[in-house]
């Protein structure tokens, strides 16, 4: 029961924030009538809840008498979710609302709310959201209730519980996968000996140029930061930021690599950077940005190549023919396209038309926006042969490339995923794509990491961290992760140089685990563990043959059984370590019914 309630707590906070986010996206007048009662229908049973009682609990934490039977569920976490406030720039609110009402995915969400609350069809719900945004106390779940233009609102509890059940299953699956990956990805290592430390600051003086490069053919100005030194030692590294970030998102990495002689170009994509959130565009992410981002980088490489030849200070020192591209989130998509990945518009369209609202992640809003893109007939026009290596951090991949599009990426690729990333969930955005990449070098798992954990703490867009589904870890907790990324990216880029063998040992589990901490453990493997690969294959088959929610139920069961295996092995090891005669106990545990039950169930799956 406690586990079920944990689900409901996560749901209440996550979707309370999501409702608040939706409510924050518009402006309008306050209603003359506000909801006073909620009538919750569950089959033939009806329960009436007074909104005043909800407000009393939210304000004081005291349980109203009429809520006495539900007291065990009214925890401080639920109280906090009722009081969570969210504020967004008005321009962003309007654009988010436009996307919500105009996109197929947004229409599905509105239709779902209409099924849960029949008195709130889409047009009424939108008016309610407009009114809620004007509450002087800020936008909360309570301000949304106050904005409902009817005294009594009926909630279909069966529909709501079915939706929350599927949402809870999805969240529990991610939590279980995180536990399983932590164990499956671990491997015993020996302490490394070294004559160089790629994570330590280098000896060279870092030079920094800020560039504004005008592309007249596209009527577009691309800002870029060039970090370099007088004694370059390797190929250039290009940094491509994610949505609503800028060229400074990985500034710490640019400075570090340049101190070792590796020149870095941090590109800013003007259509999807911080400023793009507050411009006059009608949508959150203009669809042409999926095309313009790769073109931005190719254009910047062309201009810096010219600068490299004509500048007296550079004097041809930069190697722009073997570029290592580091892409975060949408920047990861950008890198894959430039390395030859083939977009599959039909696969993307099929996915977006069948996706359930309970499965929606922020990444799905972005990738489904790409169904409106007029993709060029020759997708190779976005490819750039100067891209020799890829480092993908929390990349947005999903269904962009179908089942075979990633097979065209032949360059060595590193993939990083974070287990608490609710923006680009690891299963669909990183684990499956990692299996499809023909030249994937390694998967790095940041246990407990979120979508923004790899960023420079002093250069993360503060507005992003206020969104409920984009929490961020304190800077001190992720410091070791950033140090590791500095050393790993440097060692990976140096594989294009005569010093490759010297730096190859740093591309290993041993090196990753040196930077692992109890709060943010790091895992590194060159291939997916067999249990995880088998689970992915099973999930794909179940999605094809079964209707919701059964694929998710079976997937969760499979992961729980793997987790049970881990617990049994841990029990065996602890028992053997404590007892002088271990063989009889070992034999008993291997013949125990629970062990065989778990093993048989996994085999059947």
Which key phrases capture this entry?
605 residues; alpha/beta; 22 helices; single chain; disordered C terminus; Rossmann fold; 3 domains; nine-stranded mixed sheet; 12 strands; three-stranded mixed sheet; disordered N terminus
CATH architecture of the largest domain: 3-Layer(aba) Sandwich
Overall number of strands = 12
Query: Would you identify the regions where 5 or more consecutive residues have pLDDT less than 50?
Result: 1-32, 588-605
Give the strand order of the largest sheet, numbering strands 1, 2, ... along the chain. 4-5-7-6-8-9-10-11-12
The radius of gyration computed from the alpha-carbon positions, rounded to a whole number of angstroms, is 26 Å
Total separate domains: 3
Strand-pairing-aware structural class? alpha/beta
Shape: globular
Binned strand content? 5-15%
CATH topology of the largest domain, anyone?
Answer: Rossmann fold
The total count of helices amounts to 22
For the record, what is the CATH homologous superfamily label of the largest domain?
Alpha/Beta hydrolase fold, catalytic domain
């Amino acid at each position: 029961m406690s586990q079920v309630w944990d689900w409901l707590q996560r749901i209440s906070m996550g979707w309370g924030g999501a409702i608040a986010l939706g409510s924050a996206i518009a402006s309008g007048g306050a209603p003359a009538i506000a909801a006073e009662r909620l009538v919750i229908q569950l089959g033939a049973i009806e329960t009436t809840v007074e909104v005043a009682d909800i407000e009393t609990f939210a304000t004081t934490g005291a349980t109203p008498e009429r809520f006495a039977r539900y007291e065990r569920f009214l925890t401080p976490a639920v109280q906090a979710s009722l009081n969570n406030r969210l504020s967004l720039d008005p321009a962003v609110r309007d654009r988010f609302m436009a996307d919500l009402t105009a996109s197929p995915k947004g229409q599905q969400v509105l239709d779902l709310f209409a099924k849960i609350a029949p008195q709130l069809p889409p047009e009424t719900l939108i008016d309610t959201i407009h009114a809620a945004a004007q509450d002087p106390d800020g936008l909360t779940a309570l301000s949304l209730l106050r904005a409902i233009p009817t005294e009594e609102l009926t909630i279909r509890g069966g529909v709501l519980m079915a939706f929350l059940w599927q949402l809870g299953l999805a969240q529990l699956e991610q939590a279980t996968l995180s536990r399983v990956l932590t164990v499956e990805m671990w491997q015993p290592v020996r302490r490394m000996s070294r004559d160089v430390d790629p994570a330590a600051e280098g000896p060279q003086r870092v030079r920094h140029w800020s560039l504004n490069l005008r592309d007249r053919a596209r009527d577009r100005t691309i800002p870029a930061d060039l970090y370099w030194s007088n004694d370059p030692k390797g190929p250039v590294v290009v940094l491509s930021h994610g949505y609503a970030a800028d060229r400074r998102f990985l500034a710490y990495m640019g400075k570090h690599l340049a101190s070792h002689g590796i020149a870095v170009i941090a590109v800013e994509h003007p259509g999807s950077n911080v400023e793009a959130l507050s411009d006059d565009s009608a949508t959150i992410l203009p669809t042409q940005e999926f095309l313009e981002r790769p073109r931005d980088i190719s254009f910047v490489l062309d201009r810096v190549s010219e600068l490299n030849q004509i500048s007296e200070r550079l004097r041809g020192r930069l190697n722009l023919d073997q570029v290592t591209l580091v892409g975060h989130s949408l920047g990861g998509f950008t890198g894959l396209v430039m390395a030859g990945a083939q977009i599959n518009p039909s696969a993307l369209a099929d996915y977006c038309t069948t996706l359930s609202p309970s499965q929606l992640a922020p990444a799905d809003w972005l990738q489904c926006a790409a169904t409106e893109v007029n993709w060029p007939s020759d997708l190779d026009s976005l490819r750039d042969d100067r891209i020799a290596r890829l480092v993908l951090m929390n990349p947005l991949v999903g269904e962009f490339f179908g089942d075979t599009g990633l097979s065209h990426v032949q360059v060595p690729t590193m993939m990083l995923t974070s287990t608490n990333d609710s923006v680009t969930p690891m299963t669909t955005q990183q684990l499956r794509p990692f299996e499809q990449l023909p030249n994937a070098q390694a998967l790095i798992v940041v246990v407990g990491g979120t979508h923004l954990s790899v960023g420079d703490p002093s250069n993360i867009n503060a507005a992003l961290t206020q969104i409920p589904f984009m929490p961020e870890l304190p800077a001190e907790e992720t410091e070791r992760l950033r140090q590791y990324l500095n050393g790993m990216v440097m060692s990976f880029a140096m594989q294009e140089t005569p010093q490759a063998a010297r730096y190859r040992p740093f591309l290993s589990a041993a090196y990753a685990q040196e930077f692992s901490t109890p709060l943010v453990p790091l895992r590194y493997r060159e291939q997916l563990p067999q249990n995880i690969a088998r689970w992915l294959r099973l999930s794909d088959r179940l999605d094809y043959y079964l209707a919701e929610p059964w694929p998710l139920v079976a997937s969760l069961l499979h992961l729980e059984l793997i987790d049970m295996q881990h617990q049994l092995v841990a029990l065996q090891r602890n028992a053997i370590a404590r007892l002088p005669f271990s063989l009889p106990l070992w034999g008993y545990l291997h013949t125990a019914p629970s062990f065989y039950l778990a093993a048989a169930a996994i085999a059947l799956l």
